[in-house]
Amino acid sequence: MGLMRLRMGKPKPKDEHYISLHDVREATNHFDSQNVIGSGGFGKVYRGYLKDGTEVAVKRRDKDSRQGAEEFENEKELLFRLEHPNLVSLIKFCDEKGEMILVYEYMKEGTLQSHLYGSNKPPLSWEQRLEASTGAAKGLNYLHSNGIIHRDVKSVNILLDENLCAKMGDLGVSKAGPELDKTHVSTRVIGTIGYLDLQYWMTGHLSVKSDVGSFGAVLLEVLCGRAVIDHRLSAEKVNLVCWGKKMLEEGNVAEIVDEKIRDTTHPHNLAMFGSIVLRCLAEENAERPTMEEVLRDLEWELGMVRAGNPPDESVHGSASVAAENSGESGHAAVSSQEKKVKALERSQGKTYERSPSVSHELSATSTSRAARLSGSRFLQGRNGNAMKMKGPVELESISEDENCF
């Protein structure tokens, strides 16, 4: 799907979404520290209740934040005009007495990251991980279809509601995409180490494919259940994208999959998911899929999981399984899966369609192509070691970003 320009109409009246500072203070019990549920580059996020009882998340700009009026106005402008089930909704705003406050719908289950690692929350099943990935892809695809590049796609910016429905959040640094006759826009570099595409970092050339690459890093988190940068691990494993991509190309998905789901997830599903990850992390932007294609692939994979996997369809662990199995047997396995998906479609009245430009057959041809995608364009230091940085970055600067929004 080509990029479409978002038609920016006249701003809605200020009083429609405005909330007074007095009401914000009441909602958060005067910004009580016990109500803090997260923090980010913009400031702290508080849990609160509006006068009508609506539970909300209140993001207040810190006085020393490097983000300011530009990010505040950008997010306010976008979210009051964009509406989608997979975007976190902005309800109110306040700019009284120098404050910059945004009031969002409350996402009860917090960040996707908190359900993958670093918390005591119950682990997500493979189906739940696919559902979250698909929901986030829907939100990101909607942004792209309206000419908006997110610019800071990561697992802490994907929020889950009480039904574990995933929604994209934090549009403060989002940017309008290029004109239809251009491939990118030139801009200052903003993003987060571990998710940030090296091509964008080095050139300042931003495109929707920059988001796709970052989303590929998120999908690796979903698969592996670990942080994108973890200095507790050996040097080769510190950077998840560098290590995880190499392992997938070598056919070692079983060695990197999150142990919490390893024994309950069919190897065939892991292999198919791994192939999506590799395409998102392709070296060149031109080789990466669009988010529309990624969404189709994830929906197809989710349809297969919901249809169930017959125990006799044994696949030995990755998109590279064809090195051990003939192209014909790989095709047979996929064909059998497709029959089950068709059965699911008939029962649910829904079509699960793979992107037309992608072959999910586990053939030797696709395996050798993936193997050629060596290296990684995601930030790493000398000798392939991850750079010791954290948080969202601007060119030659680092700032903290520990939690949601």
Automatic annotation (TrEMBL):
GO terms for molecular function: ATP binding; protein serine/threonine kinase activity. Residues 31-301 form the Protein kinase domain. PROSITE patterns: PROTEIN_KINASE_ATP, PROTEIN_KINASE_DOM, PROTEIN_KINASE_ST. SMART domains: S_TKc. The keyword Nucleotide-binding applies. ATP binds at K59. Keywords: ATP-binding, Kinase, Nucleotide-binding, Receptor, Serine/threonine-protein kinase, Transferase. The keyword Magnesium does not apply. It holds the Pfam family PK_Tyr_Ser-Thr. Residues 362-377 have a biased composition (Low complexity). InterPro entries: Kinase-like_dom_sf, Prot_kinase_dom, Protein_kinase_ATP_BS, Ser-Thr/Tyr_kinase_cat_dom, Ser/Thr_kinase_AS. Belongs to the protein kinase superfamily. This is Putative receptor-like protein kinase. It comes from Zea mays. The gene is At1g30570_2.
